[in-house]
Amino acid sequence: MYWLIEDPKHIDLLADSNHEEAYIEIIPTSHNLHPVENDICAVYIRPKRDTKGYIIPINHSETINSTIEQVQNVLNNIKKIYVRDRKEFLHYFALKHCYQPSPSPHTYIPQLTTAHTYIYNKYPNLQDLNTIVPIVKHYEVCEQNFANFNNIKINLFYRKADLVFNQLERTGIKIDQTLFEEYFDKEPNEFIYTQYNLNTLTTRPSNTFGGINFSTLNKENGERKCFIPRNDKFIEMDISAYHPTLLASICGYDFGDSDVHQSFAQMYKVDYAKAKEITFKQIYGGIWKEYETLDFFRQVKAYTDKLWDEFQYGGKIICPISGYEFMRAKLENMNPQKLLNYVLQNLETSNNINILYDIFKILRGKNTKLVLYVYDSFLFDYDKNEPDVMLQILGIFNKYKLQVKIKKGTNYDNIK
């Protein structure tokens, strides 16, 4: 069968083959639109037992196009689908039987052909450019992407991550279009969309799309005023003393119901603000000699030493909750404190994935939306006609024994 499939009979033949496994790649119509706003140009399918892949075009200028339903039928008949980015794939096809490799800090960047580069550079302001890139050039890129694909390491925990971050991206954040154009020099639509990437050194997600880093929005220059609720107001829930709390949980230390930073203030015999400063310096920089006899830090040191021994002599450590592995052979210039920080960031992320999963179960069918997540902060677009929703969400943080501080505002800049 030829690599370009335009005949409905050949599509049916591919569907009836009931392939056990296949690598799938979506070719979107636009190379720079967010998947929420994008459409499908074509779908590349590479069955594991075949010697080549196939492209089924859906919206391309030089082909006989098929329908999404026809492609969906093919995908439904493949028992296990492998993709490079399952979170993104779910924006196009909501299929349970697709898998992606475990997160990796080495993000794969496809090598485009000269035809892609020429067309993208010649028409920088036009969308849907993939519909005029020669279809054979899309095929060349997909074949190369498959050749560089490795599906050996699959961590099933991150299937939950794909679901929650896909859902979070779909929601979008409403913006004041006039202010947005003023601050970001972009012509916006009513909503802007985030894009979370777990392919980082510790799997702590970055969140950047369209040149905007949503994790580091400036708190001083007013640009946060651009982000407004679609409902009545924003409610932000910040987890207090998150890393000390996580450390305590894995070391077996119990703060009880006390404010964690107030507990440290009493240990150090300093005020609250100074206690926060001292604690974070020690967690990220190492325990100070004058505090190493405190029970909390004795347990932290014992845990850090245990981690380091496993890493040095076992060659790897396995993170709590996620099961993610930090391999000694793949990490450079490591030391005990750095390894502890890596584990903490991974634990923070995996704990948040469980929290996000529980939150989305509560928000299903509701007007209140979760619109932004930044490490220890959760931003909700709140509908005042749903007062019980926020109480239920508070219950989730209580379930995970986390203390939260609540702020409210009419935009992302004036939250207090």
Strand content: 15-25%
- Write down the overall mean pLDDT: 95
* Order of helical and strand elements: HEEEHEHEHHHEHEEEEEHHHHEEHEEHE
Major sheet size, sense and barrel closure = 5 strands, mixed
**Adjacency order of strands in the biggest sheet:** 3-2-1-4-5
| Structural class designation | alpha+beta
Low-confidence stretches: none
Helix content: 25-40%
Describe the fold and architecture.
By secondary structure, the chain is an alpha+beta fold. 39% of the residues lie in helices and 16% in strands. The chain is built from 13 helices and 16 strands. The chain has helices at 8-16, 68-76, 86-89, 114-122, 135-147, 157-171, 177-184, 242-251, 260-268, 272-285, 295-314, 336-363, 387-399; strands at 21-28, 40-47, 54-57, 80-82, 98-99, 173-174, 191-192, 196-197, 206-209, 212-213, 233-239, 316-318, 325-327, 369-374, 377-382, 404-409. The strands form five sheets. It has a five-stranded mixed beta sheet, with helices on both faces. It has a four-stranded antiparallel beta sheet with strand order 14-15-11-16. Strand 12 (316-318) and strand 13 form a beta hairpin. The longest helix has 28 residues, at 336-363. The protein is globular. The N and C termini lie far apart (63 Å). The model has no long low-confidence stretch (mean pLDDT 95).
